[in-house]
Write the structure tokens for this entry.
Amino acid sequence: MNDNESPDSAQHRPRAANWLRRLGPGLVTGAADDDPSGIGTYSQAGAQFGFELLWALLLTYPLMTAIQLVSARIGRVTGKGLASNMRTHYPCWLLYATVVLLIVANVINIAADLSAMGAALNLLLHGPQELYVVCLGAVSAVLQIFVPYDRYARLLKWTALILLAYVAVALIVPVPWREVGRAIVRPHFQWSAAYLTTVIAVLGTTISPYLFFWQASQEVEELRAVPSQRSLRRAPHQAPAQLRRINFDTWVGMGVSNVIGFFITLTAAATLHLHHIDVKTSADAARALEPIGGHFAYVLFALGIIGTGLLALPVLAGSAAYAAAGTFRWRNSLALKLGVAPEFYAVIALAIIGGVVVTFLHFDPIRALYWSAVINGVTAVPIMVVMMLMAGSRRIMGKFAITGTLAWGGWLATCAMAIAAMGVFVPG
């Protein structure tokens, strides 16, 4: 400690460092939820309905946190991912159907995200969008396959800082904060098909099955990364510290996800809705923002699309690989070398390649996102039901079976998602 440094400030640094170390799987999971396709959904909500849907982001926060806490606890308590637990305790047909739907939805999501990232890079640099898509896909695959897990996990954690771009954009553009406050405190509901469909889209964008698989598997990765750590069923004395960390990490991570979604919706409402500009994709939102919010806001928004895509791609491809590996009993871990877990890394590579190929089919990004939402909604509900049954089973979770507030919150999130999934199929 130097002469000008107080003891309090010296103690503050390790405390702050410890606080940051406690953030991991939950933060990355929450940040990855704000992918380019999610940005497109939030932008559409703000552009179409102004501040009227900001309440939805407050509603999704506790629901999303509850189900992600359930996912994280299953991984940490059992020491196995969701697919491995499903294989052990439930019928094979349910596991196979779930994993196939998950992988299909993830590949479509990867394609939509790559398309949005390529379009955003084209806005900034011009040039061939298709080439950008290939390069971005290749970079993501190479990082996942060849960068050591501990370094890669830190990279993902710090990449989450790109989300601050959307807070900055909201501070740059003029926002009528009094009107925002009124919309939150006294929300105005519409019983129109367009309004309800958008609410469903926001809920479906926020609560996605790939996030369940990713966070449970990342808890297992964290377990393996520290030799002294064991699954909580085998080492119950580690439970108090680990469950506190999971709670803190998940509440913060899902808070980041929902705050950023809130600011994206807010920005679109304060600019695009005010000028009666409708958008279909995240790149459309960035393009439309320039004449209203200025060049700096436009650049920040476009950079945010690229950064969040680089964060979301490994979560989408990785969750598909964890699910497939758990289904077929393949060795799986981002900490393993390529030669030790070839099937696991092959699924990651094939998911990225599949996404790139789909972008070259010149698909309609809006229809792709719609069908991805349909598949996500159909897949999420049975997975959430199975997760809740697993998490509440003493046979699987031992004395760590969930009860009380978390159980109620998880089932409430499951019911909300079931209603959203049914709403996707309502005509009009």
